[in-house]
Structures are given as C-alpha cells and as structure tokens.
Amino acid sequence: MSNIVAGTNIKTVELVPTEKKSHPFGTSMEKCKLEENGYREDEYFISGTANVYSMQNKKKKEVFTDAPYVNRIIIRRPTNIKSFSGNVVVEILNSTAGFDIDRNWVLTKDFMMRNGDIYVGITSKPNVLKALLRFDQERYSPLSWKNPNQTPNRKIPDEKLGNIAGHSSYETEDGLFWDMLVDLAKLLKSASDANPIKAYGDHYQFLSGWSQSGGYLIRFIKDFAYDSEDQDLFNGYLSYGTVSLCTPNLNQEDLTDPTTLDLTLPKLKSPMIEMHTESENVSLNNHNSRMEDSEYYRVYDITGPSHNTQNTSDEYYKDDLDLKKAGFSSLYHGKELYPNNFPHEFAFQAAQHSMYMWVRDGKHPISVEEIKVDDELNNVKDENGNSIGGWRLPPINFPVCKYLGSSTPLSEEFAFSCSIYGYEEPFSKEKLKAMYNDIENYRSIITEDAKKCIDKGLLLAEDMQQCINISIKKAKKYGLE
Asked: pLDDT tens for residues 349-407?
C-alpha cells in the first residue's frame, strides 16, 4: 500500500464512528459539555510504518525500518469552522497510569473551547492497549505496535524494558512512537484529503506533554524536531508538569539511566514553555534539565499545587464509567483529610495564552522567579508554611491553608502516587479571623489581588471570577465566616 500523505509513511487515516454502543475511550462529550460549547469529538486510527532508532556515537541510527503500526488519535474541535482560532494543540497522551491521560486538555479545556482551538491527542505507548481492549475489544482490536525485532535476545527482563519498570513488553516496541508523531505533525499541516482538519485551513501547531509525556517532548525536541533545516513540525512547545526522570530513550531496549543524560535542549528554533507544580519543580531529576529564560524559552513554577490534584484527578474522573470498565480508578490515597485542590488550571491557561501571543505576535512572555529552594532542593516555606516565590495566584498570596506537594500513603502500594499528590492543611478558624476578619473582607482582598494578577499576566481576565469564587468557597469550607 502506498503512502497517502507526501513526506510521510502514513497508509490510512480512518474515522472510527461514535455510536451508542461504541465511543472513544475517555470521551469528553458529556463530561466537558462539548456540544454545549460548540465542539465535536472524533477518533481516528492511523496506519503506517515507522522506524526504530538507537543512539550510536551520539548520532541517531535506524536499527529497524518500515515496521507496520496502527495507532489512535482523538480530535476535539469547533463544530463551526468559522469559530476556529487558528491554533492546534497536539498532546502526547500520558501513559503512566496504564491508560491514556489527557491532562493538558483537562487543565486548559475551558480556555481552548472559548478560544476556538483544536485539540489532538495521540496515544504514546503500547502499555495502554490492554486498557483500551478491556474497555472495548471490538473497537480497539485493530491497534498494533508489534515489535519489528522478532528474534530479540531477551537478555533484559520484561519488567526492565523501557523508561518505566513493568510498562514495556517484547511483544511491542515503544520506539515506534517517534515516527508516528513526526508523521502526525506532517499530516495535520498537509493539504491531503486524508488530513482530518484540512477544512480548517492553515494554522499554528503546538506540541504539549504532561509528566512522563513532557519527557517525551524533551526527547522529541532533542532528536527529531530539527532533523532538517526546513523542517517546521511545531510552532511552539508546552511542557507541563514534566518529569525528566521518565525521559525515554529512543527504543525500549536502551536502558541508559536518564539521570546520566544531558537533558538540556539544543538551541531552540521555536518557543517553549516549561511549567511545574510543587511536586516536581526541582525533584524527579528536573534540576538537571532546567535552563535559564532565553529568547525561545521560559520556565515557571506554580506555587501551591501538587502534580496531581483533586480537581484534575478525583473530580474530573468522578463516576467515569470508561475508566471503571478499563479497570482503573483515579483516587486520592493519602492519610491526610484534604487532598490538594489548588486551582492551577488558571496558571496553565494564562501560560498557553502567552505562548500563542509569543508565536503569533512576537510578544515575549513574562519571566517569573523560581520557587526558592534550599541546599537539599527542598522548597523554602514562608511563615504560613507555603512556598516562597513562583507563579503566584490569589489563593497562594492570601491563603486559607498550607499547600503540600505530597501526602502520607494509606499503604505502601500508594507510595508513589502519594509522593506527587499532596494535601491541604487548613488554618484554624482563629487564624483565619486574625488574618482576614470576615468572608466579605476576604472577598475584597482576593478580588483586588486577582486584578493585580491579570495586570502581571498571571491570570486571564476571563478566569478572574471563577478564581475568586473558588477562593471564597474554600475559605468558607475552612471556617472563615
């Protein structure tokens, strides 16, 4: 079968129908009220061939070529083409939990929908195929990441393959992803009739990744983004909550320790924003990959939130039947009573807006001081127990609790998840009254600070009222009257 998109190895792009009996895993149609917001959601299977690469003498070399694959993408876009903003955000879906997590969508969906952006999510690792098949065997049986190496020496135990223990298998090959992503980027910019968003016309294209997928984004920039001088796959990069410790190698049998890798990026040709929570601002090897702000780079630490929060995990996936059918739950398993629920989505939405302005209008984003850390790389706390410095929104400038980046696990099996899912420690009612007097005074204080955050570029005007409402609700919850 011949390639259907010039410059790619894509063979087919097939729309997978959404029906009553079968819909895309993790659908946002009802959860995010897509139809009410003038949006539609479609899933496509893309088939083609990909090479597998290895790093030899500091150069990328092909070790297997033309390996067939079938992968999936999910597209959320304005129903009315005239409402399209001209921005397309491709997210490397996160596979860490064993199912596709669209965290960047979760964080920025309100901004993207009111803006008219197109969202495209791509499955990034074959470990999620089991979950997809449990969810809908018939729908997802065509997906394939078959390992082109049919005679592996198997000197490496299965559980040690890949960048995360137990997430890879000799039956599949993680390294097929790089060519899948390159070809998807080319497809979305092409004039081919196979391009699912062709009707929307020319656009600016951005690549995003959360957590492990942020590590994928780093690897992509280092080894694929600038393969040729004229290659222009993405206009900008959004690295959110990146865990550099999970940066993958080019193929799953390369077990180079990520802590020994040079994770600093080459001279960037397109803008990049790297944004962290308090769980990973300098931990999880991120202190080795941070760079100084420059012409094409900004790094931000958001003060307050942990890597996982109640609003992006428990609340977003509450009563999610797709997740339950696939055999998963997304819950807080810390001993502390109140999970971290800092509204950091407002910071991510402001940052994404500034990325658009950077690329489209040449307006450089603000620089923000880092969260202050001590010699042991612990975040330094103020008199209220919250971190000093960073991207500060009203709830951290005028807090009603301590925000912690990790929690105490209920049992050992939850040790890792609790290390990146923090909690809140409410101030006493007496302290709240001494700090703010009453709820109406607190409302005035928060409102004034929100206006200042807008002026500084830390908060979008469209998010101001919601930010105030969330702050007031939490103050009341913790006893301010």
From this structure: 999 999 999 999 999 999 999 999 999 889 999 999 999 999 999 999 999 999 999 99
Beta pairing partners, 172: 146
Q: What is the dihedral of CA 142, 148, 154, 160, to 10 degrees?
A: -60
400 contacts: CB under 8 Å, gap ≥ 6: 426, 427, 432, 471, 474, 475, 478, 480
CA distance 477 to 191: 53
Distance CA(100)–CA(106), nearest Å, equals 12
Strand partners, 294: 297
pLDDT digits (tens, 9 = 90+) for 72-97: 999 999 999 999 999 999 999 999 99
- Residue 197: closest CA among 15, 466, 376: 15
Q: Which residue has the tokens 């925000």?
A: 403
The answer to pTM > 0.85 is yes
Map tokens 């997430």 to a residue: 167
Give the contacts of 53 (CB within 8 A, at least 6 positions apart).
Answer: 60, 61, 62, 63, 175, 178, 223, 250, 251
User: Could you tell me if 401 and 473 are in contact, meaning their C-beta atoms sit under 8 angstroms apart?
Assistant: no
Alpha carbon 179 to its chain centroid, in Å, reads 20
